[in-house]
Amino acid sequence: MTPESLGRKILLVMMRYCYGDESRGLSGDIAQFHDNLVSLGNTVEPFWYDAYFDDLPALQKVLMDRAEILNPDLVLLLPYTDQFRTETLDALKARWTTCCWFGDDTWRFNDYSSKLAPHFTYVATTDPFSIPKYRKIGVTALLSQWAAQPWPGDLGPLPPTSYDHDVSFVGGYSMMRGWFVERLRRLGVHVECFGHGWPNGAVSFDEMGRIFRRSRINLSLSNSVCHDVRFVFASWPNFKTYLRTPKRAEQIKARNFEIALAGGFQLTSYAPGLEHYLRIGDEIAVFTSPEECALQIGYYLENEAERLRLLNASLARTAAEHTYRHRLSHLLQEISVRQRSA
After folding, report:
1. What CATH number does residue 188 fall under?
2. Coil, strand or helix: which one is 189?
3. pTM for the full model?
4. Given Cys at both, which of 119, 198, 287, 306 links 89, Cβ 3.0 to 4.6 Å?
């Protein structure tokens, strides 16, 4: 633990519930951001802004009042959509160090992040390709990345007879993911799917970890638009999605690290820069098409020693480098360095 990580008063502006919807349960940001910031020795006061979704003018006033009372060393905001007026953000920035965490700049930079970013002292982005874009608009951007939160219980590989699924996927349904799973089915691969929109439905955080660990192969499927013409012309809704969606680039996601830290083997769609976090072929396996995916599924189901080699290597690397505690410690250190040199 470094001195830069300790002793800050942090006003953490975040949502209490997943997507601000109480029916979907508590937000994962609570454990990932709040609890880890506290574990690093900081005093953290959460400000639940989804409580004001029905009264955004009140949100601006209450947030400023809370900052006045706390007088924080850092205001860290985890944004959703357009809940905060730029005047409010400017007022916070004028008096305190502020930072905004942007996790989807691969598809939200032009229409969202770039508009909000100038109103913060710093921004954190998970997209390395957005760093020069921020620089061009005069914003100090710090590179971070999605990560994993430790799972409860034991980690590591299971005995061969203890698996529940050969191939599974956990994540919300999308037309792209539905098309991909159907293509695998036609290639003779059954994928057990969990999440909003799938027949199995959503699962809890703990249950998700158990699925990762108890599946021989965990798929990590993209939610960005698929440029495969078979997807584009499979249906009129697919074609409209292809034309309209802003999600046109692959991105590294938390799932890439969550599966690894649960002690699961992962086969994932490739995202640029993934090799800087997990070594392809040594710690993670990637594919670029349903056919490649099916081919590798067959290979790793038949080659248990190789599957376990990648599983153990990715678990060790992720536990040592890719938890939210690592990310937040590094982010706080970066902010401290910037403050000292300002």
Report:
1. 3.40.50.2000
2. coil
3. 0.89
4. 119
